[in-house]
Amino acid sequence: MSLDCPIDSPAGAVADTITFSNVDGPGNRFVVFLQGCNFDCIACHNPQTIPVASGARFRTPVDDLLPRIRKAAPFLGGITVSGGEATMQPGFLMELFSRVKADPELRRLTCFVDSNGSCTEETWQHLAPVMDGAMIDLKCIDPEIHQRMTGRTNAAVLESIELLGYMGKLYEVRLLILPGVNDHPELLRRTGEWLARIDPAMRVKIIGFRRHGARDHEPALLEPTPEELAAAAENVQVADLNICVI
Ligand code: SF4
Predict the structure, then answer these.
(1) Is 131 in the pocket of ligand 1 (CB under 6 A)?
(2) Domain tally for the chain?
(3) 55 cis-preceded (ω within 30 degrees of 0)
(4) What is the pLDDT of residue 120?
(5) Percentages helix, strand, coil for the chain, rounded to the nearest 5?
(6) Which of 38, 41, 205, 219 is the most exposed place for a label (fewest CB within 10 A)?
(7) 13 lines ligand 1 (CB under 6 A)
(8) 35: Cβ below 6 Å to ligand 1?
């Protein structure tokens, strides 16, 4: 993790916000995208959020966000903090989620994190009292392929998925399918078996890589066809895993 990451700041390095989203957790959600990520994924569709922003002028206080959330609240089921990597700023997550939970008008909103799963158990335990759920990306169950895809090994990601599963805080695991890189049937079967050992009915979202927004790559990264995505879902399917494809 970058040392200049404002991890303890109650103000967030916010890249963007969306008032209504139905793809960032259950129901309609207000989404805060944080700036800065400790991965460097070849398939990142939002690479402008990777550099860590340092300095006070990049910080957005929770006080600036709450009125906007309050205005949208009648139409929301919850809020989600995404990235970049949301857990690089746990001080901000704590402040935002605690303030939402303490507010009589907002406390019915669920508070979710969308994460690459790289943070420590200590951070998840710290967030658990105010965090209702997390969506975790698993780029690949194989550590070497994961390293090639993200620049980092997957040990912490696997630990996060296990921990959140056992804590009852894992809403969904997301598998990005990159043809020829992480879609080998044996890899996907192994992934499904591993996830089903944690929760046989886990929600698993299969997401096809799309070039739009991603950086150029040599050789060019391929987009999966609908047939390839359906085959990937079949290969992951183990036990009662609750798989959806988008
Ligand atoms: S973890 Fe997410 S935001 Fe970070 S580089 Fe990978 S895809 Fe991009």
Answers:
(1) no
(2) 1
(3) no
(4) 96
(5) 35, 20, 45
(6) 219
(7) no
(8) no
State the distance from the centre of ligand 1 to the C-alpha of 44, rounded, in angstroms: 5
Residue 239 neighbours by CB distance under 10 Å: 13
Closest by Cα among 36, 20, 119, 123 to 77: 20
98-102's contacts with Cβ under 8 Å and 24+ in sequence apart are 98/130, 99/62, 99/66, 100/66, 100/69, 101/130
Residue 168 lies in a domain: yes
Tell me whether residue 202 is in a domain: yes
Q: Which domain holds residue 53?
A: 12-245
Predicted TM-score (pTM) of this structure: 0.95
Q: Is 37 in the pocket of ligand 1 (CB under 6 A)?
A: yes
Span from the CA of 65 to the centroid of ligand 1 (angstroms)? 23
Look at the chain and count its residues: 246
Query: In a structure prediction context, what are the per-residue pLDDT tens digits for the chain, which is 246 residues long?
Result: 333 344 567 899 999 999 999 999 999 999 999 999 999 999 999 999 999 987 777 799 999 999 999 999 999 999 999 999 999 999 999 999 999 999 999 999 999 999 999 999 999 999 999 999 999 999 999 999 999 999 999 999 999 999 999 999 999 999 999 999 999 999 999 999 999 999 999 999 999 999 999 999 999 999 999 999 999 999 999 999 999 999
Q: How far does residue 37's CA lie from ligand 1's centre (Å)?
A: 6
